[in-house]
Amino acid sequence: MRSALDTNILIALWSATPEFTKSRDLLIQARSAGGLVICCLVYGELLAQPGIKAGFVDEFLTNTGIEVDFHLSREIMTLASGAHAAYTLRRRQAAGSEPRRILTDFVIGAHAIKRADRLISFNSKDFRLNFPKLAMLP
């Protein structure tokens, strides 16, 4: 089973947050079930973290066997855009009461649907709302 990873799972490993142990355990569980992959936008978000250098990210990904998928297809972008449009409509109808989400989150979800068997994220609730058929962990 191939697992796609959201940015927050990896950031938790690199910081002294309460999620560190949970993130580590989720990655161990996912690795034992199959391959790990991140969307190129997750890679970009990792590089954008304060104090993080490209060499560190690349070495970490290599050492942990996490693949970076640098190819986004029309199918992924169409799925992401459709989910984002539906979210935007819901948000407008709710007078902005839903948290604001950016297109990147939708591309990460669409990438997981098309290129993995599930997504691992600490924002499972948001992904489940926008991609009801997406398998999630936790």
Brief digest:
The protein has 138 residues and is α/β, with parallel strands linked by helices. It is built from 7 helices and 5 strands; from the N terminus they run βααβααβααβαβ. Helices cover 59% and strands 12% of the residues.
Structure characterization notes:
The structure is a single chain. With 138 residues, the protein is α/β, with parallel strands linked by helices. The protein has a single domain (3-128), classed as Rossmann fold (3-Layer(aba) Sandwich), CATH 3.40.50.1010. Helices cover 59% and strands 12% of the residues. The protein has 7 helices and 5 strands; from the N terminus they run E-H-H-E-H-H-E-H-H-E-H-E. It has helices at residues 7-14, 20-33, 40-47, 54-64, 74-93, 103-115, 124-130; strands at 3-5, 36-39, 66-69, 118-120, 136-137. It has a 5-stranded parallel sheet. Helix 1 packs across helix 2. The radius of gyration is 15 Å and the shape is globular. The model has no long low-confidence stretch (mean pLDDT 92).
How many distinct folded domains?
Answer: 1
Our count of helices gives 7
Main sheet attributes: strand count, strand direction, barrel closure:
5 strands, parallel
N-end to C-end Cα span: 15 Å
Give the CATH H-level superfamily: 5'-nuclease
CATH fold-level assignment: Rossmann fold
Please trace the helix and strand order, writing H or E for each element.
EHHEHHEHHEHE
Alpha-beta classification: alpha/beta
Biggest sheet, spatial arrangement of strands: 3-2-1-4-5
Give start-end ranges of low-pLDDT stretches.
Answer: none
Outline type: globular
Mean pLDDT: 92
Strand content: 5-15%
- How many β-strand runs? 5
